[in-house]
Amino acid sequence: MPMFNPRLFVGRDFLAAPDCWWPDAGVAAEVNSREWHLSPRDWENTLARQARMAAAGIIVLHFPPSRIYTERKEVIAEIRSALAAGRTRCLRCGPCRPGDRRLVALGYRVRGPCGAGGCPRCWPPP
C-alpha cells in the first residue's frame, strides 16, 4: 500500500510531495488533472517537481484522473511493473545514477539482485 501525499526530503532539503509514494521501491505516482495543472505557472511547477524527483532517481508515473477510471487494468499493470523495477535495482551502485546514494534518506530499503539488502559489490554497507 502506498503512502499518500508524503513530504519527501533529501537530507533537510524538501524534494516533493507526490500523490502516492512506495518507499520500498522508490516509485511515485502523480495524478495530473487539468483543473490543477492547466495554467502555465501550475504546469511549470508540476514539471519542475517531477524533474526533481526523477533527478533524485525516483521512478515517477503520471496519470490523468480519467485514465485511472477508464483504463484501470492498464494503470495497475504499469504501477506493478514500476514497483517490480524499483524493487530490483540497487540504490547504492547501479544500475542507477551516481546521485542515488542519497535516496536512502528518503526511506528506501536498499535492495539488490539477491533481495538480501544490496548487491555483492556494496553489501554490507561500509
Written account of the structure:
The protein has 126 residues and is of the alpha+beta class. It has one domain. Helices cover 34% and strands 17% of the residues. It contains four helices and six strands; from the N terminus they run E-E-E-E-E-H-H-E-H-H. The protein is flat. 23% of the residues are buried.
Beta strands, count = 6
What is the rounded Rg? 15 Å
Work out the strand percent.
Answer: 15-25%
User: Helical proportion?
Assistant: 25-40%
Please give the domain count.
1
Distance between the termini: 31 Å
Number of helices: 4
Q: How much is the average pLDDT?
A: 75
Structural class: alpha+beta
Q: What is the element string, with H for helices and E for strands? A: EEEEEHHEHH
**Poorly predicted residue ranges:** 95-118
> Which of globular, elongated, flat, extended, rod-shaped describes the shape?
flat
Lateral strand order in the biggest sheet:
1-4-5-6
Largest sheet: 4 strands, mixed
